[in-house]
Amino acid sequence: MLTTTLASVVIGSLFVSSLSYANTDADQDGIDDSVEQTLLLKYAPKLYLHPDEDNKPSSIDWYLQRVAMRFHHDGGCSDDQILALGSVTQANLSQQAHQTKKMALLAHRQ
C-alpha cells in the first residue's frame, strides 16, 4: 500500500511539475513526454552482463532477419514453409496463416 501511495505521489508531482513546461505528447498517449522521460530515467531496468557473456541483447528486427517461419506437423508429415529466411518482419508476422494438409487435400479433391 505504501508503495502504491508513494508511486501516486511521485507521478502526481511529476505531472504537476511538468505543467510549467511546454506540454508535448508526441506519442499521443495522454502523458506528457517530459513526465515519461523522467520516469524512464528513474525506473528503467538496468541490464548487467558478465564480461565473458557471448549472447548480447538484440532487437526484434535483427532476430527476424535471421529466421524463417515454418509450420510444424506432428505425426510424420513434412513441415511447410510459411515465410522464407530473411522475409519475416514484424509487419507480416501476425498476418500469416496455414491450412493443415488434411484441409488442403480435401479442398483439392472438390
UniProtKB/TrEMBL annotation:
Signal peptide stretch: 1-22
Organism superkingdom: Bacteria
Protein name as annotated: DUF946 domain-containing protein
A Pfam family the protein falls into: Vps62
Alphabetically ordered keywords of this record: Signal
Organism this protein belongs to: Paenibacillus foliorum
